[in-house]
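Thread: nicotinamide-adenine-dinucleotide complex, take 2
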Amino acid sequence: MSLQNRVALVTGSTSGVGLGIAKSLAEQGASLILNGFGEPEHIQKILSQFEAEYRVRTFYSEADLAKPDAIAKMVQDAFEIFGRIDILVNNAGIQHVEKIDEFPTERWDAILAVNLSAVFHSIKLCLPRMRQQQWGRIINISSTHGLVASANKSAYVAAKHGVIGLTKAVALETALSKITCNAICPGWVLTPLVEKQIEALANSENINSKEASLRLLSEKQPSQEFVTAEQIGAAVLYLCSEAAAQVRGTALNIDGGWLAQ
Ligand code: NAD
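Output below.
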């Protein structure tokens, strides 16, 4: 599969799942707009690696996705540099774990802004160009928590359920076109977002991080193995392919059996 003439924007691609997705797209030759936080040297290293290893054009946007103006600038810059965006992967996400009685309101606001509202803003800004180009792929990284809940994750669960609803609505609004919109629902992937939860469990239960990882997995993920960012990247490539032209409005679980229970 060649994506050589395609331009992809992957939000939150300086780490974890987003970085894995960006690599999969770059391996197929797509030009990449990367986004996310991180040390400048770390980000520079990623950009140099993409250009050297995959020989693709890259652009990095430091946009804070909690800010609609920053999203607008990111998309505008991308159009100015590449002239198009063919593939939009809404991946950036944050988490906060606390029971609702004590859930800080500012964390609720931040999670809703980054995990849900940013998806709306990016789609709204990219879709008119995709319509002009008469082709597009919108892929929203939701979660198993977009389909079922866990205690102490009210904001995350609400936002990720919202992403699946938004995905379906956009899929219907684009159904007569060559633009598709789908969601991917990963189970546990070992990234900094999950490492923080493993560390918190290890500290609260006074166990080492290996035991904490196993406990986290056994509680939810029957395979007892982490999903990898590469596996999510491969699913993104499938959704970008012509084979997936009629896959519309789905929520694709990649979860080691989490949602089969
Ligand atoms: P991560 O913490 O490794 O990466 C998150 C990325 O988002 C980073 O690049 C970070 O800089 C960026 N980001 C965070 N806030 C941002 C903001 N305000 N503006 C711009 N960028 C921002 O986390 P991850 O595990 O790779 O998560 C990626 C996505 O996958 C998230 O949407 C997450 O909810 C989802 N997900 C992760 C798992 C998992 O087990 N790791 C499971 C299901 C879904």
